[in-house]
Amino acid sequence: MGNFSDLTMELEPDPPGTPRQRGFIDPRHAWHLKTVIKVSSVIGEKVLGISDPLEQNIEETPERLRKVEATLQTMETRGQLKYGDLTPLEFFEMVRAELFGLGPLDRFLENPEVSEIMVNGPYIIFVEQAGRMQESGHKFLDDEHVERIIRRIVRPIGREVGPSNPLVDARLPDGSRVNAAVEPCTLDGPSLTIRKFSENNLGLDDLVRLGSMSAAMRDFLSGIVAARRNIVVSGGTGSGKTTLINALSRFISDRERVVTIEDAAELQLSQRNVVRMESKKPTFDNPVSVSVRDCLVNALRMRPERILIGECRSVETLDMLQAMNTGHDGSMTTIHANNPRDTLSRLETLAMMSGLDLPVSVIRKQIAAAVHFIVQVSRLRDGSRRITHVTEIQGMEGDVVVLADIFLFEEEGMQGDKIVGRHRGAGNRPSCLDELERRGISLSPKIFFT
Ligand SMILES: Nc1ncnc2c1ncn2[C@@H]1O[C@H](COP(=O)(O)OP(=O)(O)OP(=O)(O)O)[C@@H](O)[C@H]1O
Ligand SMILES: [Mg+2]
To answer: What is 27-195's CATH number?
Structure first.
């Protein structure tokens, strides 16, 4: 498996007049894809005996693979097959991907260095590889080719995609998260975004090793999780929020009962007394819709000690704050915001969406009482992901929520195209230190001042 040798191909310059966001395919590349698709279709139908094979989700078995390989060899010997610029092995891998996989995307799915795949219409595929976003040079043949692969992804979970249902979330069997958007909601062809499920889950030690946080921050963060502080992880898209919650969750005691609620399950808890819940969007065969808030209201009847919500983005926010305030200490969630202060106003805005008509001052008090820490993660301009703030909410002063930075990331300059900097204590003593002590977690006060 996985014999795709090159990952990034050389990009042909777009011919003059090609729209920037559409790109193009050069005739030779198109010829290769056409041949592969045609051969795949014939082999699927004639050799594997599957009608309309490219529209099916065919399971890859050793026997089927052997048949494909043997057929290709026979065709080649008989002079029925031209590989063009491809090697026989590349050709075989491409046929395999068309028949059993996700076509041109298989090479990226198989490469553990690739964490995200972004298809902008058939001719522009970006990947994030080892933290770098780059155009891969690989292409689909045309819109229909992309749409066919999208159908393959969404069909097993009972979803349809097309003009009457142009925006779809789905998941690959391995847990990777997929979003597909097609006409009329996209202008330059079908779009597909895949966040690959990562097996080698990053732990706090890995994050220290990668420079995302310091060892002192690791000790502090694992301490506040064990001491059941409520934490909001805040950051932009793909900044590492879910990864951090997963890493922090390892410090939840096995004796505690946890309920997790997500739109698409990504949290991977190692504890046993865990109920994992997922919201439900209406599908073709099941029109029922269950929101994150519905799950949360239900979760409160499941006797949880902690509640983890994958992301607060709507009306569930107020319920989450209330749950944090009513005996579910140690709860965690994530939110899209750019800095800790921004996180507060975002929480406020979202909490006001609940329709309860609470005055801002009341909501603000709830936030100040419910949330103990905001941990800000960022994907910096060099592609690195860092924790930039660990900030404690220390209460209210008049109408203002009091924030105290405990740890910060300080940029010191550039080395080549890499940002150099260091994590340091911000000079504030966390007010939760006594609570940590009571729970047997003792930290040297020095770490907050160096
Ligand atoms: N500290 C880190 N260092 C390197 N890679 C990381 C780090 N944190 C996360 N990643 C990688 O970045 C990608 C995005 O991470 P993650 O899913 O945690 O982000 P997110 O903020 O939850 O994204 P979204 O906004 O889409 O929910 C993943 O591939 C993950 O493995
Ligand atoms: Mg996430």
So the answer is: 3.30.450.380
